[in-house]
Task: structure prediction
Amino acid sequence: MEKIKEILRRLGYLLSRNRHSRELENEMAFHREMAERAGRPEAKRNFGNTLHLREQAREAWGWTWIDRLIQDLRYATRMLARTPGFTIPAVLVLAIGIGVNVAAFSIFNLIALQPIPLRDPDSLVRLQRRSPEIISGQMPYLTAMFFREHAKTLSAVMTMMGARLEFEDDAQPVRTNFISANFFVELGASAAYGRLLNASDEAANAQPVVVLGHDFWQSHYGGDPSIVGKTIHLNHKQVTVVGIEPYAFPSLNGETADIWLPITQQPYLVEGSALLTDPADGGPSMWGRLAPGVTAKMAEAELLTLTNERRKQYPKDVWKDEYVRSDPASHLHVMEPQMYQAAAIVGALTLLILAVACANLGGLLLARGVAREHELGIRLAIGASRKRIFRQLFTESMLLAFLGSGVGLALAYITIRTVLVTTDAPKWMSAAPDWRVLLFVVGMALVTSLLFGFAPALQMARQKHRRTIARQILIGAQVAASCILLIVASLLVRAVQHALYTSPGFGYEQVISVSPGLGEHGYKPAAAQAYMEQLRIRVLSLPGVTSVALVKLPPLGHGVTRIDTQVNGHPLQIYPNWVDPDFFRTMEVPILLGRNFLPGEKNAAVISQSMARAQWPGENPIGKTYGDKDTVVGVVGNARMNDLNEDDTVEVYSPSQTEDMPGMSLVLKTSGAPDGLTPSLKSIVQNLDPKLFPEITLLKANFRKDMKSVELAALVVSLIGFLAMLLAGVGLLGLVAFTISQRAKEIAIRLALGSPQHKVLSSILGQFSWPVVIGLVLGIGGTAAISQILRRVLYGVSNLDPFSYVSAVLILVAIIAFAALLPARRALRLDVARALHQE
Amino acid sequence: MPMVYTPKENMPKPGMPSGALAMLILRVLNSGSLHGYAIAQRIHVLSSEVLDVEEGSLYPALQKILLKGWASAEWGISETNRKVRFYRLTPAGKKQLEAELQDYDRVTQAIQSVLRTA
Result:
């Protein structure tokens, strides 16, 4: 209790310091008066020290550190303002170093740390079917409904399925989400206009209604609220608009849409669809909300029990050892371990840049220290304690660090806003820093001020700056860090170039893929086969079409199937596909060994060259058995059709059979440019069956889209490399210039005495040769050691690619040479007399 | 209290043990409230002019005593009609005084027994 009162009293003294100060002054003056009157000698003696005595008394209050801090800050501000030639570059260097880190952290924050603005995001989970052999993101509708009815650990179950529907008569389909009626309600959204979907829309005789996406509403109806209540046509069917989605609605998993429809209306819009009735029809993704007090593990356990029960009723629809896996849905993406790894790599790289910046700054501060020799010497002589000077210098560094952080934060904000706008990010993401980012910035400021402030402050306070070891360490550190950054940047740029300019192995410039979606409209295999035959004949007869083929997973399309397996101890990612014999010719994939499929062939396989090498290295794979019963009949060139960015993938093609037909797409090759054929293709598909709405894509458009993100990555990486180069160059330049200015007199004398230029140069720059060499060695060695981690992102380029290493090192050496020689040459042309007179 | 000026002899002043000043101040305040100068005078006189409390030590000690709540300060008029701060012992201060006196006795006895017998 007493302690509390004491603390309160201390606070009181803090707040009314001035008043108490004056009272103390009066008191002590009175004391002296009385003493004088009594004729005591203290009266005279203490005159000079009044201020000191008052300060001593005030120290008892315990607030002197604030006074000193304010004093230091004011002094530091004055000093920094007086030397803009130092302050501005220093703040910029810091801003770049800190800004890069803040930007990286902000992005990480947006993706992984900030919860999406939905109602109670922590209890949302994504539920997926899994078995030891199969991974699927889809849950059959009937299974989801079964869980909804019986699962007590889930307070709500939601389903969502993306689709593309034809809007009025537009050529471009609109992105649609079919959702369970409780979707908006569960997520706590309220309509911008009208109403959102609710339970009444799932009733048996509910009218078909639709909610418009906010952006879609803006672009197509100019934000006019009168659209609510009117009817629109989707897939030539009538639906009524009941409301508008709220602005910046985050949705689940970032899946926004132009149109929202109740999932129960899906068969109305996609005629023939068995989504709601077929227990095997994988379709929507399933989401749930954990009941209060329930953990994800408890939910998984209950769902496993329910799955096993379901197997008794529908033994064919439940996989062996099937279970349900839950992932938290509170952030933009479900974080997988590789994403954390990637984040760690990026974090490490940005920290390296910061290291370079700090080393840079340390050098600048050292140089400045020399210039302030005088000032510090005087202060020491007057009687300032070394501790006090050190504290003041450190405060300067802190001020610099916080200034740099402020500017860095501004830079990061601008960067993030640009990124959000150019990548068309979800609207709810804002570049404004939240408390996590602000905390990070403050932390960065403190850490950096410790890093670059400590050493020079110590040195200055001890006035022992003649030794060169600090300078050498700084240079060595800068060279090493810049080396690592440059090599990594050059590796990444090479990888990107490789991805951009090496052929993916198949022709895409003149290929169009047509997906009629027969399966979704309820086609059975026989009917599908008949349809596809008709389609093929008619498409082939179009002018300009040279070749037509059937494929189950169209190249560069949405659907990807992958088998992760192991061969001879090495992991292998196999992309299977089901094709007809015309496929390889249409896609311009060369047949290297063996032969193509024969029409109607079964139990055959055509494998890619990489597969042959992986599975049967050094042998002839023709005639070998693949899987359970397929014989390899041919080897084709590698074609990264389903995942452009993965380099060590292999493809295995099986001949398409009748039962594959409902899921097949058609690909065709044109002789000229493929543009403009889309309307004809669409009318052919619909003439054969009017209820179909095919998805027609030009492969080259998809290719460009995929490449855009890769190009962006290359740009960013090059920028980082360039920054590193710039910082290193500037830093080195500064340090060398500083060294030379320190020894200007010595240089002048030696030149005057006739020493040859190169000897003078080598004696001055000699102190840098070892640090540079060691820095380079550390940099190369360090990169080689950690580059294993980068293997995942280095498509097609070895992590020890000599070209990248050599080019990076050469560039760095060139910069170092330039940075060192430029001031040196200027020094050699010094006016000897002037240098000697400079004092 | 008559303020008599006695010429100082050229004797080196004994140093006051650092913790003792607070205790002495509290003891002096026990008999009534005084202002700062009067406290110093009292100590000086009561110790037969051996102990000389300087401004530099008196006021920091007084501030500390105020902060700790062992004394409270109130404004009054001095003998010379000046507005001056009078310090008064608080109950907490009285308790602190007793505690310190006890400690001091114990330590002094301990020192004395060592000096006697060692």
